[in-house]
Amino acid sequence: MKKIQLLNLKEGAEINFSANTQNHTNEESDHYMKQTVKASVFEDLFSNKEYLLQLYQALHPEDTTVLESDLEYVTLQQVMANNPYNDLGFKVGSRLMILVEAQSTWTENIIVRCIMYLAQTWKDYFISSKQSVYASTKLEFPEPELYVLYTGSKTISKTEISLSEEFFAGKPIAIDAKVKVLITGKNNDIITQYVLFTKVIDEQRNLYKNNTQTAITETIRICKDKNILKEYLENHEKEVIDIMVTLYSQEEVLRDYVTSEKFTSEVKGIVELSQELGRSFADTVSYVAKKCNVSKDIAERKVNSFWN
């Protein structure tokens, strides 16, 4: 096993920060940082089969015979290029598990996202297993299970959402999909611990808005003390710190962009053209978010500043 040199935060070891990553107070970049840190730790955590197995066991506690070697990753990143960090697909025997993390913003559109993943994954599976949809032989493929893990602050009462219910008023439709909603897990399982980890990130980020180093060290310290992903943080502490430091640097880039004259000019031009063409406010916000690669919250505030 590859040895990892850990940073012992409790003994006062310092994290190396560049000068431009320590004092960020911009509301928009703050939102971005919380979102991306959670997403990347999600990816790093479950890229380890030890924790992936714990995830599977939390979802299927009745299946006690599955081993790490039975888990097979399914690459989903290329399906939705703008969201590569917080989606997970893996195959266990005859099951195909797709788990999507919804962070700050809750949207029922995540059902469609899951369906897109599923369709692409099945397509790839048919190719790899040398099956043809045009052949007379009946296709064989894994049974899908769709999950969304919500780690935002909004209260979600639903434990399951479906394409039919959310988009077509419950009418029978040709293709339906049901997605189980995970808000927390049970008995301090890996799902519970990950959700608690995201809450600690948010709390420390809000508490130490002007001190990046403290926000990071306190997040890790608190989680270790409270047995939240403790083993993962102890064994992968350096990677977690690197993730956070890197994403703080990305935060700085985003902060500079969303406050730049270039971004302001781009949005102003888009708004003027949208109004000439009769495009709605909502459609304009969506277009700005996609074109400028910013969150809808940022896009909405900026579009609103120019909307007459």
Automatic annotation (TrEMBL):
Domain of life here? Bacteria
Designated name of the protein: Transposase (putative) YhgA-like domain-containing protein
Which species does the entry assign this protein to?
Answer: Blautia faecis
